[in-house]
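User: Carbonic anhydrase, Mythimna separata:
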Amino acid sequence: MFAIFVLFVVSLADLTLQAEWTYDRENQWPGVCTVGRLQSPINIMSQETILDTNQVHIRGPLVFRGYNDVELVASNNGHTLKWAGVRNDQAPILSGGPLRGNYTFLQFHFHWLSEHAIDGMKYPLEVHMVHIKTGLSMEEAMERSDGLAVIGVFFMVNRGYESAHALEQLAPFVPYIKNSAQNQTESQKVDITRLLSYDPQSYYTYKGSLTTPMCQEIVTWIVMDKPLFITSDQYRLFTNVDVGGDFNYRSLQHLNNRVVYRSVASCASLLAPTFPGTLLGLLSCLSSTLHAGVNKGVGAVWNIKRKLFGDGVKKCAKVA
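Assistant: Predicted structure for Carbonic anhydrase:
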């Protein structure tokens, strides 16, 4: 009975309004989607971010508790593939970094192409891990500017068995929820730490919104800057899912004078993909971009430039 109750609560926390909205008609989205000033996703320009060396905004490291072996149920809500928790008493807890207090894990879901961009570069896939401020109901969280915290992690496509690690526990369940009419899977144990960047203390953070209607501006975003690698087969598995179209990412939104902070760890050298891996990721991005239309997100030419000739080391030009 308890599990059923928790599933009902999680369904309320879906954060994707089950109404007639589509990604190719963003100008018709309800709520504050077209009028808000703190909308997400954004293009993060690394040299315009603030390195928070004095811990004015980022106060210490992020702390992850209980992210191993979490009981989750997978589903397709017609807009994304989502894995949601079923036992509230064992939900992972996130704290530290830019957060004030604890945040309880609700669910993670995927977007292809990525929703955020870094220095004009989009990635093939992005996962969002949604957390609610501990102790709040969903209705209460929707009324607070710090009601939710969402971690974003990017994925690059690369050849090799080692690239399968991040998604290998999820991939077998995708065919069962390929169509939105297929309901949901049985619960499964998932090691969510596999979906975290290999350096989870290296990230950007800013105040933003949900990226689906009603686009409430209640999210502390934590966007990790070092991507994980997946195989081309895994990428195709996700992009063949029925989500009402060929893509499920929102267009980039205006920054509107917001400050984007970066953690001290983000000044370390980036993992440089091999040339075949970079080319494979590029082709995957271009394939999806051509299906979606190059008018959305960042221009394909700029993506090519950044993917082939991107910086090996990030420059931290601004210091708080």
